[in-house]
Structures are given as C-alpha cells and as structure tokens.
Amino acid sequence: MKVSELDMFNGSYFNAYKGLYSLVAHEVTQLRSMFPEGAVNDINGYKVGILTKLMFASCSFMTVIENNHDYSSAATILRSIADNLASYILIYRNQNADEIALRHYLFLYDGLNTRLKAIQSIKPTDDVTISESEKKQTQQGVRVAIGDTLNAIDYSLKEIRGNVLYKQYKTEIEYLISLDYDNWRFKSLKNFKQKFSWQKIYPLINGKESSTFFLSYLSQYVHGLSSSNLSIDNTKPETFYPMIHIGITFLGKIHEFVQEDFGISKEILQNNFFKTDYGREHLSYVSPTYIENILKKLNKKH
Asked: pLDDT digits over 52-74, tens only?
C-alpha cells in the first residue's frame, strides 16, 4: 500500500512515526519549560503534564515494537494513549473556560477519591516479614499520603463549588459530586445524569465512528482477554502497520494540541529544532528532497 504522505519519510511507516515523534517531543519539551507541570491549580500546567505523559508513552510504543516485537504491550500502550487523548479532548478542548475548570476539578476529585481508597487499603498484616521500623515507616508514609490526598480533595471541592456555573447549576453539580466515579464525563449540565461512554468519546480523537470498535477491541490486550492470546506473526514489520498508522494519527493530535491550546506560536515551539538531538533525529528519517527544501527555507531566512 502506498500512502502519499509517507513520501517525505521514504515510504516507511516506521520512519513516519519516528520523524513525527521527534518533532512533537521537541514541541512538548518547549512547553515544559514554560508551564509548571503537575500543579492541580494550574490548568495549563496540568495539561502539559498530560502531554508529557503521552510523549513518553508514544516513545515506549515504538520501543516495544522495534526492540521487543511485542504486539500485546504495543496494543496496551496504544489503548492507554487513546484513553488519555479522549479524556483530554472532552475536558480541555472546550470553548467555555468555566466548563473546562468544572470538568478539570471533577476529574481530579474522581481520581483523588480513587487514590484515597487505594491508599487506605494498604495495611501491613502481622504475618508480613518486615521489621518493626519498616512497618512504622510504611504506616507513616500512608498517613502522609492520606493527608495530602484529603487536602487535594478539599481543594478540588472548593474550586468546584466556587465555579461560576455552580450558582446556576448547584443541584446538578452536587449530584455529580455525589457520584462514585467518572463524574467528569457528564454529557452536559442540562443532561447531567447521562455520561459519555468511552466508546462515544473515542470518535472525538479523529471524528470517525469506526475508531470506536478498534480502540475498544484493544482492551483485549489491556485486560488479558482471549484475543490477546491468539498467535500473531510479530516477525513481520507489516504486522504492526495498522497500529503504527493509528499511532501517527495520535501524534498528529498531540501536535495539534501543543500548537493550539497554549497560545504559544509555532516559531517559539519549533525554535532551534534542527540544532537539537530531536531535530537531528528527525532529519535521519526524512527523504533527501525534504532536506533540500528545509535547507532552501533556512537559506532564505539568512
């Protein structure tokens, strides 16, 4: 199969993926220098944290394919990337800043409650062969983690109830707070008891309903279901082409988010790209014609 978009990458799916990855990784790295990652009260920083996670996962995806020829792990990573992209789009690709903030803090509240239950379940039993000092250290670590999580939960609730939308939709938002999980997937505040299923969110990635079936099918590999045990010829590169094709689409979405969601110009995001390791790596995957065109553009600038 010949795909015209692959021409610049010498007709190779592998080169196309790695070439695009090197560009996206450089752009995400640029963003990381501008926004503090992980701060839950900095939505842009939190978004950069998600894109950073996706960058690392995208690298791991190709690594397990090229180095290990591991179809099952590659499929699992691809599904994880899809879920992250889908949730990012539902929460943050919205024109209403107040709704973005509402979904963001409901998303945090959901995850923090799950984390709290998981931490509270850590209780070393008497038959565990660890020293008393190690047991005390574990208990202290659990207490600190519980305290930090409870503080973050309280902060999230404060932000949810302080949102402008809360005045108009108090009953609806309190209902969402009361849910055990996935409260951030509400369809709308006017249809708050209905939630988007993952199958309905997947088409947001590429606008195709057909993507729903394949991405849902990848759960076979995530959960170790029967199809993940079927024999597959992982010695042939073409075995991985369908997944790599989807991976290229996903990298394109990350590239789109980086360029459109943070108010940073393309020139700044790609500044000095070809002087970096990522840029040199990118050039190793493209065709001579593409390199010639780049050199012409650079010469015109100088």
From this structure: 999 999 999 999 999 999 999 99
